[in-house]
Each structure stands twice: as structure tokens, then as C-alpha cells.
Amino acid sequence: MLSFWQRSFYLIVFLFLTISVSAQSSTSRITGTVNDINGSAIEGATVTLTNEATGVTFTQVTTNDGVYAFTSLTAGRTKKSDSTATGFLSNGI
Q1: What is the pLDDT of residues 28-71, one digit of tens each?
Q2: Which pLDDT belongs to residue 84?
Q3: SS in 3 state form for 25-48?
Q4: CB-based contacts of 27: which residues, under 8 Å, 6+ apart?
Q5: Which of 35, 27, 42 has the alpha carbon at shortest distance from 78?
Q6: Domain limits of the chain?
Q7: Collapsed DSSP state (helix, strand, coil) of residue 91
Q8: pTM above 0.90?
Q9: Are 68 and 62 in contact (CB under 8 A)?
Q10: How far apart are CA 1 and CA 86, in angstroms?
């Protein structure tokens, strides 16, 4: 049977390892809203992100509230490159 100090030691080591592992992540998330000049949400707009390091692109279509979300993006220089919608000009960022 383990003594009080041995159990305490193992508990502290376990908590330390759990906190250390959960704090590390190599992915990120980008979210936003596409609005017109009057601030109204634009449904169905296509938003494209490009990872400048790899050239890989990601595309999302906005919800009826104009919201888009890119999840689990890998580390690197990713930028918003374009958003388009029918009846609107491309922003070409």
C-alpha cells in the first residue's frame, strides 16, 4: 500500500502532465462575419483562406447570419484572401 506522500507525489505528477498536455495545440480557428456596407449579414458568401507557406486553400460558405468558421487550421501564415457573394463585388483582400 502506498503511503500518503507517495500518493500525493503521483497525484501531483499526474496533474502536472495533464495540464502540460492539454495546454499544447498546433491548430487554430478563424471565425468572422461577412456584412454589406450597411452592416447586414450576407448569407451564402464564399470565404477563402490561403496558407502562404504551403499554398493550400480552404473555403467556407457563410450561414444565414453571415458567419463563417475555419477550424483545425495548421500553424503557418494563413490569410483571408477573398470573399465573394452573388450581387456583390469581391473584396480581394
Answers
A1: 888 888 888 888 888 999 888 888 777 888 899 999 999 999 88
A2: 77
A3: CCEEEEEEECECCCCCECCCCEEE
A4: 71, 72, 73, 74, 75
A5: 27
A6: 26-84
A7: coil
A8: no
A9: yes
A10: 71
Query: DSSP letters along the chain, please?
Result: ---HHHHHHHHHHHHHHHHHHHT--SEEEEEEE-B-TTS-B-TT-EEEEEETTT--EEEEE--TTSEEEEEEEESS-EEEEEEE-TTS-----
Grid cell for residue 30: 478563424
Instruction: Give me Rg for the CA atoms of the chain.
Output: 22
Model confidence at 21, pLDDT cuts 50, 70, 90, reads very low
Question: Would you state the cell numbers that stand for residue 92, as one nine-digit string?
Answer: 480581394
